[in-house]
Amino acid sequence: MNLEKVPNQRKLTLCRKYYMAGFALLPFMWAVNAIWFLREAFWAPPYPEQKQIRKYVIISGIGALVWLIGLITWVTVFQQMRSEWGALADRMSFIIPKGVP
Predict the structure, then answer these.
(1) Ranges of each domain in the chain
(2) What does the alpha-carbon distance between residue 19 and residue 52 come to, in Å, rounded to a whole number?
(3) By three-state DSSP, how is residue 2 classified?
(4) Sign of CA dihedral 7, 51, 43, 61
């Protein structure tokens, strides 16, 4: 969709929907929102709805970044500690590696 052809009120509505979808444990929606509306929030000529769009873009970007950092941290910890966690880690794994680490 070309955002230049969309009315400003519709842009705000769409941005708000992506922002709210991120709270449904869909941080990818926050990332899409932050990237898709970045130009509209910061570099487009000023219009009344832009302030709210900017707020949603900033919060969406921060939320997506927090989720990304949390996911990377979890994957790193799990990969390094899986063998030490024993049966608990085996129950959390879909694929259990064979052999001794």
Answers:
(1) 3-92
(2) 11
(3) coil
(4) negative
Q: What single-letter DSSP state applies at residue 51? A: H
The number of helices, as runs of H, and strands, as runs of E, in the chain is: 5, 0
Q: Would you state the structure tokens that stand for residue 12, as one six-digit string?
A: 């705000």
For 72, other C-beta atoms within 10 Å of its C-beta total: 10
Instruction: Judge contact between 64 and 23, C-beta under 8 A.
Output: no
Dihedrals phi, psi of 23, to nearest 5 degrees: -75, -10
pLDDT in tens, 24-76: 989 999 999 999 999 999 999 999 999 999 999 999 999 999 999 999 999 99
Q: What is the pTM of this model?
A: 0.85
Burial class (CB in 10 A: 0-12, 13-18, 19+), 67: middle
Residue whose tokens read 């024993």: 86
Closest CA to 9 of 57, 43, 52, 59: 52
Contact status, residue 81 vs residue 89, Cβ threshold 8 Å: yes
